[in-house]
Design brief:
Blueprint lengths: L5 E6 L3 E8 L4 E4 L9 E2 L2 E4 L2 E4 H10 L4 E2 L2 H6 L3 E4 L2 E4 H12 L8 E6 L4 H13 L7 E5 H10 L9 E7 L3 E9 L11 E11 L12 H19 L4 E7 L9 H7 L4 E4 L3 H14 L7 E2 L7 E9 L2 E8 L10 E7 L4 E8 L6 E6 L11 E11 L2 E8 L12 E7 L12
Parallel strand pairs: 1-10, 10-11, 12-15, 14-17, 15-16
Antiparallel strand pairs: 1-2, 2-3, 2-4, 5-6, 5-7, 8-9, 12-13, 13-14, 18-19, 18-21, 20-23, 21-22, 23-24, 24-25
Length: 427
């Protein structure tokens, strides 16, 4: 594995940012475009049969705007067709071209995690498809939102920074948003460790704070500072907050000195704009390296149920998850090969984080020929039809020349609780 092959990629409407695992430092490092500047403008250009991106495309836009495109992210999300450089092209293809160009310095990508403001099945499919376009198999591509990236980043900070709750404030030209990382209460102390989530606890439009961006008027800046201070005090009311993180271009101008005093009162405060790409890189590291799994991140889009089979793994028999809690249902499809003892059925356990009850389902293997122990090899496949319906398929795939496949197939439809309501019960 070469340095820089494990990546986190922050993709927003205006910019992208890349963090990579540095083997010498054993932590993510963010690619700089200038001194302490990590932002690569999301602008694509085409001139003289040559593709350009970022700052070069931005310079091209000043003289030949018709040969550049800057609203690429939004148009790709909408799956639009774009008239660009004399051709009609898919906006998704153009976004893939931009991402490909930004990653030219990373020729061998082991794993990449995209971090975006919000994610869903369509966003996941689009970015996994782009990953495949640049040569990364879909199982080596993850997609997560900013809240999860914040979580993943915090997992690898000193424990005292998230001993209690941890706050994130995001500010741009239009709005300010406040998020809080907190621990969840799960039923029956299930799972190997801690479960956490991030809540959006408050938001306001910048005009409500009477701020001008960038802040040029001293009096209005002072008024904005006072209103931001009140905003913070409201967010922190009756909470024990260990640390505070400020992100977004709106915090680049020091218009909030009095608010800073509140932010730093009894807690650590940090200012920076590479948190999401580093959090995404930590996710890639967890998938590729023998890192401590750490807490499990949950939100109202993640599964709160786990599907387990009894298997022998590395000589140790036990109940192992084939679908784990904390996954998106649309990313939980998979397949495994198992070798079974002589048995007439398979038991499936379904555990929920929202309740103590263990649910047991049985799949009959009637019709399979009797074989000696450990000569029965099955392929197990999970396929989700929606957030509450999982189809389990068991296929006899034979065992070498002596035991060819019989063509046996068994199927079980599992009706799960879905997402709605379960997550809220753990709050």
């Amino acid at each position: 594995m070469k340095r820089g092959s494990i990546l986190g990629y922050d993709l927003s409407e205006k910019n992208c940012q890349i963090s990579y695992y540095d083997e010498t430092k054993e932590e993510p490092v963010t690619l700089e475009t200038a001194v302490e500047n990590y932002q690569i403008p999301l602008i694509l250009g085409y001139y003289n049969e040559h593709w350009v991106y970022g700052k070069e495309a931005k310079r091209l836009a000043e003289v030949q705007e018709e040969n550049t495109i800057s609203d690429l992210y939004v148009r790709a999300v909408r799956r639009e067709k774009v008239e660009f450089a004399g051709k009609t092209r898919d906006a998704v293809w153009l976004l893939a071209k931009y991402i490909e160009l930004t990653l030219e310095g990373f020729p061998e990508i082991e794993y990449i995690t995209f971090s975006v403001a919000d994610t869903n099945i369509d966003m996941s499919k689009m970015l996994k498809g782009i990953g495949r376009h640049i040569g990364v198999p879909k199982e080596r591509v993850s997609v997560q939102d900013y809240k999860e990236s914040f979580c993943q980043y915090m997992f690898y900070q000193p424990k005292e920074l998230w001993q209690y709750e941890s706050a994130l404030f995001y500010c741009d030209a239009q709005q300010i948003r406040a998020f809080m990382l907190r621990k969840l209460n799960v039923a029956g102390n299930r799972g190997p460790g801690m479960f956490v989530t991030v809540d959006e606890v408050a938001n306001a439009h910048m005009k409500e704070l009477a701020a001008i961006y960038p802040v040029l008027n001293v009096d209005k800046a002072r008024d904005a500072d006072e209103q931001f201070k009140a905003f913070i005090q409201n967010v922190f009311e009756k909470k024990v907050v260990s640390s505070v993180y400020l992100t977004g271009e709106g915090f680049e101008n020091n218009w909030y000195p009095n608010s800073q005093k509140v932010l730093c009162n009894g807690r650590r405060a940090f200012l920076g704009n590479n948190l999401y790409s580093r959090g995404a890189c930590y996710t890639s590291m967890r998938r590729c390296l023998e890192y401590d799994d750490g807490p499990v991140y949950l939100d109202d889009t993640k599964m709160t149920e786990q599907i387990c089979l009894r298997m022998r793994v590395n000589g140790k028999e036990g109940w192992y998850p084939i679908v784990d809690w904390g996954m998106h249902w649309y990313e939980a499809d998979g397949h495994w090969e198992v070798i079974l003892e002589d048995t007439s059925d398979i038991e499936v356990h379904i555990e929920s984080l929202a309740g103590d009850e263990l649910r047991v389902e049985t799949i009959s293997l009637k019709g399979l020929p009797s074989r000696r122990d450990y000569s029965l090899r099955l392929q197990i496949e999970t396929m989700f039809l929606d957030e509450s319906t999982c189809v389990l398929t068991f296929k006899d795939i034979g065992f070498g020349e002596f035991y060819p496949s019989t063509g046996f197939v068994a199927e079980k439809v599992l009706h799960l609780g879905g997402i709605n309501g379960q997550f809220n019960s753990m709050s």
